[in-house]
Design goal:
The complex is a heterodimer of chains A (about 280) and B (about 270). Chain A has one domain: MetI-like (MetI-like fold, Orthogonal Bundle). Chain A is globular and about 75 Å long. Chain A starts with a helix and ends with a helix. Chain A is an all-alpha fold. Chain B is mainly alpha-helical. Chain B has one domain: MetI-like fold (Orthogonal Bundle). Chain B is built from 13 helices and 2 strands. A two-stranded antiparallel ribbon of chain B has the order 1-2. In chain B, a hairpin with a 5-residue loop joins strand 1 and strand 2. The longest helix of chain B has about 30 residues. Chain B is globular and about 75 Å long. Chain B starts with a helix and ends in a 9-residue tail after the last helix. The chains are: A mainly alpha (about 280), B mainly alpha (about 270).
Chain lengths: ~280, ~270
Amino acid sequence: MRLYAYLIYFFLYFPIAIIVFFSFNSGKHASDFQGFSLKWYPKLFDNPFLIDAFNTSLMVALISAILASTFGTMAAIGLNNLKGKLRVFYDSLVYISVMIPGIVIGIATLIALVTLFKFLNPLLANIWPTSFGKPPLLNLGYVSLIGAHTLFTMSLSILIVRSRLNGMDRNLIEASNDLYGTPVKTFLKITLPQLFPAILSAFLLSFTFSFDDFIIAFFVAGSETTLPVYVFSSIRRGVTPEINAIATLILTFTILLLLASHLLMKYKNYSNKGSKK
Amino acid sequence: MLFPASFWFGVMLILPLIVITIFSFGERAPNGGYIPSFTFDQYLNLPARFVAFKNTLTLAPIGTITALIIGYPLAYYLVFKVADNKKNLLLILIIIPFWTSILIRTYAWIFILGSKGIPNLLEYVGIENLRLINTSFAVLVGIVYSYLPLMVLPIYVSLEKLDKRLLEASSDLGASNFKNFINIIIPLSIPGIATGCMLVFILLMGEFLIPAFLGGGKVFFVGNALVDLFLQSRNWPYGSAVACSLVIIMLIIVSIYMKFINSKNNREEVSII
C-alpha cells in the first residue's frame, strides 16, 4: 500500500523533475543531457516577446483576481439574503459558468465580442466628439481577456466565500446589532474579518487560474500574447531547453504562490482557533 | 451587492451563449464570415466530425474510470494509513500539481513518451520501434496524470468524514476488513466518488491540450476540432453548432448521471463542487 502511494507520487512529480533537470542542460538539444549549465536562464531575459507575454499575463491575472474576489464576495453576501426563484437563477448561472468547458466559453466570448464590436465601433465613431481626436477602436485584447477570466474566477470566488459564509458564527452579527452597531460597522468589524481567509484564497486561486489559463486566452487574446499562449506556440515550433527554463520558472512561481496561500490559511486558522479559546 | 456580478454574467456569459446559439443556425459566408439565416444545415453536417465526438465520448469515460481506479486506493491510503501529522503535507503534494500549469505538465510527457524517452530506454532491453506518442495510450496517460488530483481530493474528503466508529463496531461484530471495505467504506464514499468522476468527466469533455500534444493529430477530441474550425478554417457557424452540440451532450450525460447517483444515494445530495 505504501509502495503504491510512493509510486503515484513518483508518477506525479517525475515529469516535473525531468523538465527542471533538462532546463540546466548545456546542450542545444532538449533531450540529450550534455552537462550542467545555467546559460538558458539569462537568455530568457533578452527575449522581448517573452517579457511582453509575461507582463500581459501578470497584469491580466492581477486585475481579474482583484475583480473576481471583490465581485464574488459581494455576490456571495448578496445571494445569502436572496430567496426564491431569483436565487435559483443566480445559482444556476454560477454553476453554468463553472461547468461549461473553457473552450466553449472562449469561443462564445470571441464571436460575441467580435459581433458586438462590429456594431459598436461605427456607433462610437459617429458620436465621438472630433475635439477628442480619433475615436477608440474596440478590439479583442486586455478587456476580453480580463472579462473572460473574471467570469470563471468570479464564480469560483462566489463558491469559496459562500462556503465560509455558511460556516460563520451568526451570533456575533446578532450581538453587534443588539449593541447598536450600524450595518456598515457590523460588516466591517464582524463579517469582513471572518470572511478574510476565504476572500484571500479566492484571490490567490483566481490569480493562479488566470495566470495559467491557456485555452480561453488562445481565443480571446486578440493581438496580445499571454505567457501560456507564448509557451504553446514555442512548443509547437519544437522542444528547446529555453522552454524548459521558462517552464521551470513558471513552476517555481506557482508553487511559491500556492505555498504562500496555504501557509497564510493555516496561520489564519490557528489564530481563529486561538481566539475561540 | 449583486450588480457587478449580474453585469458580468449578462455580458460575459448570457450574451455569448445566446450569440453562439444564433450563429449555429446561420450560414457561412464565402470568406469565412457569418450570414444571418435560420437553417439546420450546420447540425445536419455534424457527422463530418464524428471521429472527434467518438474519441471524446470514449476516452473521457475511460480516462475518468482509470483515474478513479488509480486514485481511490491513494485516497484510502491517505485517510486510513497515514499518521495525522503527515497527512497535510501529503495532501498538499497532491494539490500542487493540479494548480500548476497543465500546459507545462502535459508538455513534459512529450519528452517522456517521445522517441528519445521511454521507447529509447526500452531498446536496451530489446523492444524496438515501440511507438508511444501520438496514440490513444499517450492521451490516456496524459489524462490520468492531469486529472488524478481532482479525483483524489473529493474521495479523500468523503473518506475523512466517515465515522471511524462504524468500522470498529463492524469489526467487533466479526466482520473482516474486506467486508468492512465493501459494506461500509465504499457505500459511504459514494458522494466523493460521484463528485470526483463528475469533475474529471466535465473537464475531459472540453479537453484540447492533451490530445493536441500527445495525440499529434491522430487522436483528437471535439476541443481540437473546435480550435481547427474557429482559428484555422474560420467556419464560425459550423463551429458554433459543434460547440452547442458538445454542451448539450454534456448536459444530458451529467443530468442522467446525477439522477442515477441521487437515486442510489438519498442520504446526501451530490453537488457539482
